[in-house]
Amino acid sequence: MMPANCLTFRPGETLKLADIPTLSYADYAQGLLDLVAAGGRVSACFADSANGSAKLDLYTLIARDRQGDLALLKSAIGENFPSLTPECPQLHLFEREIAEQFGVVAEGHPWFKPVRFHQSWRRGKDAWGRPTDRHPLVGEMDFYRIAGDEVHEVAVGPVHAGVIEPGHFRFQCHGEEVMHLEISLGYQHRGLERLLIGGPHKATPFQMETAAGDTSTGHMTAYCRVIEALAGAEVPPRGEVLRSVGQEFERLANHVGDLGAIAGDVGFLPTSAYCGRLRGDYLNFSSELCGNRFGRSLVRPGGTLIDCDRELTDLILKRLESVAYNTRGAIELMFDTPSVLGRMEGVGLVSVEAAEQFGMVGVAARACGLRRDIRLTHPRGAWRNAFDTIPQETDGDVNARAQIRRRELYTALSWITKHLKNLPEGPHHIPPGKPGADLFTAALVEGWRGEIAHVALTDGEGRFRRYKIVDPSFHNWSGLAMTLRNEQISDFPLCNKSFNLSYCGFDL
Amino acid sequence: MLKIIRERWRQGYRTGKFPKIEPVLAERFRGLPQLPTSACPENCRACQDVCPTDAITFEEGRPVIDLGRCLFCDDCARACPEKTLSLTGNYHLAASSRENLLQKTNEAPKIAALNAHMRSLFGRSLKLRQVSTGGCNACEADLNVLATLVFDLGRFGIQFVASPRHADGLLVTGPVTENMKGALLDTYAALAEPKLVIAAGACAINGGPFIGSPEIHQGIGDLIPVDLYIPGCPPHPYTSLDGMLRLLGRLK
Asked: Are B229 and B98 contacting, i.e. CB atoms less than 8 angstroms apart?
């Protein structure tokens, strides 16, 4: 059922800010719950204080996968607002985020804790009554604890044993068995969303490419779609196809790397060693394409910054043939080895109910049997009408997440081969005009981890008055915590690798 | 078992011959800037205007690029109306002092090797503890690549270790967020003397793309003394490897 006063639009369309009705909180809450009950997902939920009044504007963007559109709900909140998390758990982090950013209290939130440990954006306000004259201490909160003589607590991080990003994990254990895992992040917080206010600045594209550095083209494509929608610009087909090729190389590099890491964690060193090298080969393809192994400076508003001529496509296609052959060999070896399958099957389970409740996206959601892929449900650019099905698994374990990666790898390889062979003629870049004034738009992109959502509101001059970034990791970290329930603590690295979530994409 | 052996044979031997044979990087790889050799037209500051991190200043009418701030994005070269500024494929970018990163000539930055005592300690065995302080995970990813069999960092006696107590040096990435400052200082303090510090990536050197954010410390700065700066966003693995080997006096 479609609630009254709720706007729907397709990705790439803009709404005039003045046309968005402000609902009473009761109507807003009912509308949100109705949309979620009808299969909608909360893609973004955020507040904006730029209206000049004491109240905050509250926006929730619901992705409707079956309809292929987005629904927008807006309300206004004061210093307190009733939490909807008890009825709609996928809001839990969004509400905590709003509380932290603006110093407002989500009343009745069952897990009301800071998200990233920074000062509120509004001076002198803090949702937890912490001193407002200094930066809060990171990790300073009440962790969930289980009491008992035989219960012990394991604390890990922020500095981890490997060359990885910082985060803090608290395990409540009974012997080897984990009863509960709490994940506390914020160590990578760079204040990205605040830097974007008043933008786009000249550093903005580079900040987008480093929102989550392993998803540079993914986040950059989302940003470009936002700018292009705000400016009413078209992207030439060649630019769209080159973008998709860049993104598929990103997917290949990360999926191959992840499968290698999973193989390493179960002690199967051949695939681990081969995939470590092959990952580098895919990064080198990005470098051949745009000069940077992480696809930096490839995608820009209006298309791509760099073209790919016949000579280069031939070089890439020729090299890709042998790399693809080796990839197949390395990966099939792993899935052909019973001892590897034995370590992956039935480990790190997430139920489909939990995945739905937390609003999980991407690889992790598809591994639980959910049909969630922006390339299928909200396709744009080269993805339009490209897929009528996506790889899905139903087990929700490490094996399912690995299988999704394996299947997506082969799709990505054929995508690149097919599209590089038939690059559309014409320009690769048409610079867009200036973003329009007082507009609202949103972009969804399927990054290699899952759905990336970018939302922008512009002011009277066409500058960002609010820019919201939602990395897929924001939806999925809670899923990782669930996999450890009644699991051995020694399986944490394996479960973690099977998700491979971004700390910086979460922390922003 | 036979399948594993067959696949091993098919995958072949892949370790590079660096440093004996120079690596072949992508043709479009963007490395050391090539600066104009004569003065730029008066009033032309096109490169300076587009630089996202304000890495370009002007001295005697010619641009000077701070490689510590540079993201190697090529926007300056694209903006240059004279086409006298460009980025070359030279990956030798690391320097042992912050001042050496100020690129005024067209020579690669200098690295002073460690003194004889430090070289005798670490020259053939260097254990590094890496700390990520708010970057984007690309620096970390391309450091992890060094441990793969293509680069095989271990053959140079360099290794990443899990505990600062086992480490001779600290390798820092990220712009040092307020939330990681404490952990960085604690980790540094946990290393035994003598120790060295490597700052890898534009973020760790000067804040990178996040320069100016109140949530970060604009890189390591003078929080802890740094022995080697490795520019890049992120640094190419060969830039890092080359820098480390030069610091240890293993490459001239």
From this structure: yes
